[in-house]
Amino acid sequence: MIAQAHPLARLELAGNALSLDFANTLNYRPAPARDYLASYPELLNWSEYAGSLPAAAVRRLRPLADSPQAAAVLAETHRLRDTVFTVFSAIAAGRQPGSAAVERLSDAYAGATRNARIAGASAAGSRTKATHGGGYGLTWPVEPHQLDAPLWPVAHSAGELLMSGPLERIGECPSCGWLFLDTSRNGTRRWCSMATCGSRDKMARYHRRQRRAG
Ligand SMILES: [Zn+2]
Asked: What is the 179 CA–ligand 1 centroid distance (Å)?
């Protein structure tokens, strides 16, 4: 495997929902310069980074990370990512997502729930586990051959978000195409992040003002 620095450390989890962070693993749409899920091992790294699977589960999947089966799962990963983007980008624009995309999401969601278990508070945690309601939540026990396990929490998150919303709070950054759930009090979030696109916009407006002033 190619040794590389950990570019994930610079990837912001700005989506406020696991499925939206998953869609945001392309740095830019429609013409991305960086794909954070360019290989199956990167998918595993991201799952741990985003907290969708516990580290122990990710470790169990690593031995087969370079197998042909893993390559097939990577292709499935990219399809699911496109589906999640298609569905929630439409919603962010106030449109009804296409039925074919919702159908694909529905299939992925069904696969996820088939593999999910309800577990008590003592079970190894993941980001999708409930933190209230008595401490019970969903977990995904992972066997080493279940290479599509990283997609389960993501598909589940996407399905729950689509069914439970709040859909009027889903936005898309006008600059980079990242999706987010707006959890600000007033619901006025516009950018993926004030550290990147928001500040770039602020700079651009500042320079325009400077030019006008000069
Ligand atoms: Zn952005």
From this structure: 8
